[in-house]
Amino acid sequence: MMLTLHVLMLSLLSGGSARVVSDFEKECGQFFANGKSPTTFSGAQYKQICQTLNNVDYFATLYDTDNKIPVYSAYKFEGLMGCTRLQKWHIEPQ
Fold it and tell me: Does the keyword Signal apply (predicted)?
């Protein structure tokens, strides 16, 4: 119930939404190598969530409801965007 409330609040604030699914590979397979999700844990506390924005899936997240943490999130990398950063990285001396 609490997870549903958090998802609802997030969707109202951000324009995004999420849905709990029973099969990552069927619902959000595009985020995994060869369409196969990593090994999932057994137990009712683990929820597979597809996160969307404007009806487009952007992330797949395995969420642990007991510890209230994401176990992992998957995203499809679509290449480097044009970077306009002018400053160089500043490396801390070792």
Answer: yes
What is the rounded distance in angstroms from the CA atom of residue 32 to the CA atom of residue 3? 24
Measured between alpha carbons, how far is 51 from 40 in angstroms, rounded to an integer?
18
- Give the burial string for 61-94 (b: 16+ CB within 10 Å, else e): bbbeeeeeeeeeebeeeeeeeeeeeeeeeeeeee
Give CA–CA dist 52/54, Å, rounded. Answer: 7
- Cβ 18 vs Cβ 27: under 8 Å: no
Domain range annotation of the chain: 2-28+45-74
Runs of H (alpha helix) within the chain: 2-14, 24-28
